[in-house]
Amino acid sequence: MTGTTSKLQFWFDIPLWKRIILALVLGVVVGAIWGEGAQSIRWIGDVFIRLIQMVVVPLVFITIVAGIVSMGDPQKLGSLGVKTLAVYMLTTLFAISIGLVLAAIVQPGVGVDLSGAEPGALQDPIPLGERLMTIIPSNPIAALAEGNILAVIFFALLFGIGILTVGKPAETLAHVMDAGSAVMLKLTHWVMEVAPFGVFALIAWVAGTQGVAALLQVVGLALTVTVACVLQLVVVHGGLMKFVLKLNPLDFFRGAKNAMLVAFSTSSSSATLPVTMSVAETNLGIRPVVASTTLPIGATINMDGSALYVGIVSVFAAQAFGVSLDLMDYMLIAATTTLVSIGTAAVPGASIFLMAAVMETIGLSPAQIALVVGFVLPFDRPLDMMRTAVNVTGDLSVATAVARWSNEFDEDIFTRKNPVSPEKIKK
To answer: I want to staple 286 with a disulfide (CB 3.0 to 4.6 A). Which of 157, 215, 388, 403 is the partner?
Structure first.
């Protein structure tokens, strides 16, 4: 029994990010060898994702309410909100610009024949008014049950402000939310211990059923997206750390790595949210008052990776069909992509079905758009993994900036001078 205990302790003594890296590598190897048979262990990855999904909605609701209450002043929320939205829009603009410039230079669509692609099904465009209406829940309980994150955020914001304005009579409820926030972070910590096994199964399944070889069909497009993702991480978010916040970018990426790895394996910003919030507080020194409001919003509206991807694929399609683009077309793509990226669901592969709105602006027909979607779908998963990691990194980058500017930032935790557990973080 002692030997078993010591082996378990050895496993838990290994930093979580190293266990996840090991799982990623083993998953690729096993998937490549096992092939289609790796489908049989996908259920392990699905269990991991369901565990994360289990805590997402209560975590978002409770931590947002607790974070607002801890502000002590509703006006502070307005200040945080303006800063958060402004920086998210700015980083998305950089992402789109990088994607469009690279696509114009590399020209991945030139010479590509899409005639053999199987047309893909397109999602009907959702009117802007209807999309905005879904933010306001007609039934908050139903929104919680359905996992409508934007509606949950909206209700949580109102609920938290309500507690603040009521004051002393609502103190008991405020304490309940504060305690609930600590409990949800503890549950998230437990769920994360399952991450290496879930990541292993998911990566093995992807490598076995689709494989990196699928990318060889469209090397130019894949390389363009990959380079754009790297530039967004290093230049934009690394530059934000070094030149704007005067922080070491390496410290940031070290602190964010657990969330980046989980995002890469799950391809879902929403599923990664509990991990993102955990590393924000325990690794990056972002206090709960900022983490609980900035990160859930980022998981739903900040889609840097999706934005650059949609932009690149739109230019790729125009090049493949011989559609000439001028400066106004590129500006139109950038503007439309911004709106599309905000409305993109934080689930695997969602952005591929929202490209129609962007490609329509440059004159592609529904039949041509369907061909592009059908062409991209077979190898979308590996690219989706990369752009989701970019999305989540962007969430943490913006949260770090807002926390530093709002004096809700612990630089000692960020630089690892004073590492802490979630229970020890001061609200």
So the answer is: 403
Q: Do 374 and 120 form a contact (C-beta atoms < 8 A)?
A: yes
Does the pTM surpass 0.90? The reply is no
Among 346, 244, 362, 367, smallest CA distance to 302 is for 346
286 DSSP β-pair partners: 409
Neighbours of 427 (CB within 10 A): 12
CB atoms near residue 325 (< 10 Å): 18
Length of the chain measured in residues: 427
What are the tokens at 189? 């910590």
Evaluate whether 143 touches 134 at the Cβ level (below 8 Å). Answer: no
Q: How far apart are CA 394 and CA 294, in angstroms?
A: 11
Measured distance CA(45)–CA(215) in Å, rounded: 23
Kindly report the CA angle at 62 between 58 and 64, in degrees rounded to 5?
120
Residue 25 lies in a domain: no
Q: Could you tell me if residue 268 is inside a domain?
A: yes
Residue 20 lies in a domain: no
DSSP lists the bridge partners of residue 409 as 286
End-to-end CA distance of the chain: 40
Counting Cβ atoms within 10 Å, is residue 87 exposed (0-12), middle (13-18) or buried (19+)?
Answer: buried
User: What would the pLDDT profile of 267-285 be if each residue is shown by its tens digit?
Assistant: 888 788 899 999 999 999 9
Tell me which residue range forms the domain holding 154.
38-424
From CA 266, how far away is CA 275, in angstroms rounded? 12
